[in-house]
Amino acid sequence: MSLWNRLVNFVEGVNDDEGRLKDMHEEELRVASAALLINAGSIDGKFDSNEKQKVKALLQRRFDLKPDELKRLFQEASAEEREAVDLYRFTKVLCRNLDQDGRKRIVVMLWEVVMVDGVVDEFEANLVWRVAELIGVSTRDRVTLRKMVEARLAI
Description:
Distance between the termini: 69 Å
Shape: globular
Helix content: over 70%
């Protein structure tokens, strides 16, 4: 094999590795986002069908998932969330993969999940606050986003 062919194969292999790495980061982002949303839905001790449906709808819309992909993601993220000892495991992924607007979208999604039952208890509000702090969304933005979601949901 000529030097040129080996060089072409090497470069193509690097491009394949970059593609696999990008896919890995996307999957990691999906699982982290889903786990945080599941945590938000279940932190008050009641993860009812409305909250589960809201989480699934947000994930489907955000990541453009097919039904089987959504089911697998929800199962995997549920298991990850149960095993997690803290939020940092998930928030570090969000910080690494999202810009500020993407992080704000996560906060909006969290508010949507905790408000789906019409009541935001102290555990839910505290979770959104902690996640927002860990991903670098300011207090001002967090409160503004809460008010925006409340207005949209007419709470």
